[in-house]
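From the pipeline queue, job 12 of 40. The input is one protein chain; the requested action is below.

Action: predict structure.
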Amino acid sequence: MSITDKNLGSKAIQWQAHQNSNSEVPENTMAAMNYAWNLGGIPEIDIRQTADGIIIGIHDATPKRTLSVPEADQDKLISELTFDQIQQWDAGVKFGEQFRNEKVPSLKQILAGLSEHSDRQLYLDFKQVDLEALAALIQEYGVARQIIFAHNNHENCKTVKRLVPEVRTMLWIPARFPETAVETFTHIRQTGFDSLNMVQLHLPDAEEKQSWRYKLQKTFIQEALQYLGEAGMELEVLPYKFDQEDLFELLDMGIRRYAVDEPSVFVELLNRYFN
């Protein structure tokens, strides 16, 4: 699917299928990857490393929340478990019976598939991996230009850019405390957005309902969009919740990159906006 901007020429909307709060498919599974790609989006995989050094897709430090794991193993750290151990557990059935027998994928498995489709992209959200091992794996499969590395630690983004310059890097900035988000953005702007290609701003709802839904002020988001555009970079936003009016307002502001928890709802609203 290619959704083209009706106001800004041929610039298309790009969107990330956010994983750990995705409401449509079980997170960090091949089902989730293919679901996003088939909808025209970019899946995200949260990456951790097992005791035997395999990089896998899982968000939490333990398997308890997402896997059908025996009680004795629920609170063990992923870094203490082997890949074979983790493969014994179901990664889909907790989400829904139709996803029974989904397994935690290795990053090798995902990158091998990615390498066969040059038009596809993938977000890697850093949780706990050796960055040199990650860089080597990306280079092994020749997919660096298809990868967006995401983290909230600027130093990790710098390291990945040094190891694999072709990888795009994105710093995500939470906004639970808007003042801190503004300070963080101001700081990275002062570095010249060193080693970054994108910045993602989280958009949680404001405590009190008002005309502008989100905690971060609209004027700040507009300024961030301007500063990044002048630097040849992109702004991505992660609205925790949105309805048609909210999304259309963000689109009207000129924002062309999103992260969403409800991909099918997002795509439906995009089609309304452009048609």
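Job complete. The two ends are 14 Å apart (CA to CA).
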